[in-house]
Amino acid sequence: MNPVRLLSSLSLAATCAALLAGCGLESRHDTFEYLRSPVSFRIDAVDADHPYCFDAAKRPAGMSEAQCRATSKYRMSWDRPEDTVGFSEYRIYLDTNPPNSAFPWEVVRKERSLASYVIEGAPPATDSVIFFLTDTGAVPRVLPRGQGLTALDTTGRRDAKGLL
Fold first, then answer.
1. Contact partners, residue 23, CB within 8 Å, separation at least 6
2. Is 136 strand, coil or helix?
3. What letter does residue 162 receive in the DSSP assignment?
4. What is the DSSP-derived secondary structure letter of residue 127?
5. Is 33 helix (H, G, I), strand (E, B) or coil?
């Protein structure tokens, strides 16, 4: 694996994880007043031979086992905040200034539609998502718990050299 690509991907993933936030059930105002961040998070590279590659139901539609094995994959994992009263979902934002929004972070973090991933439901003590980077053009993606390998949209986030 190209070390520059890995470093840039991990840097992006760390930024993404830093923006992970839990949101309450109430209105936008209440959600803004009650954003919670994970207690801890981390991003790790996943082995090429991850079990999801051998299970067609856990791979994205149209992705072969060989393509899955050749794709760089990452696991973002986190511990939930201790206070989960009224907790309804995690929102994972790839960055603070998405290309499809001219709003500052203070506005972006209130908008569910600008999240890269939304994971609904009461969170377990620890959780994770396994993802790969690609230009899908589709956000937000609502992920059920236990989702297999999933794409993280990078549309509009690559420079002229293809780096994130």
1. 31, 34, 35, 36, 87, 88, 89, 90, 91, 112
2. coil
3. S
4. E
5. helix
pLDDT tier at 25 (50, 70, 90 boundaries)?
very low
- Percent helix / strand / coil, the chain, rounded to 5: 25, 25, 45
Q: Which two tokens stand for residue 109?
A: 């973090």
In the chain, % of residues over pLDDT 70: 66
Residue 53 exposed, middle or buried by CB count within 10 Å (0-12, 13-18, 19+): buried
Residue pair 76/46 in contact by the 8 Å Cβ criterion: no
5 torsion bin: left (phi>0), alpha (psi -120 to 50), beta (else): alpha
- Report residue 15 as tokens: 């930024």
| Closest-CA residue to 31 (of 101, 99, 115) | 115
Tokens of 156: 């509009």
pLDDT at 19: 45
Residue at token pair 């190209």: 2
If one counts every other C-beta atom within 10 angstroms of the C-beta of residue 138, the result is 10
For residue 119, give the H/E element and its range: strand 117-120
The DSSP 8-state label assigned to residue 4 in this structure reads H
Q: What is the mean pLDDT of residues 137-145?
A: 73
Is the model's pLDDT at 69 over the cut of 90? yes
- At residue 47 the predicted structure's pLDDT band, cuts being 50, 70 and 90, is very high
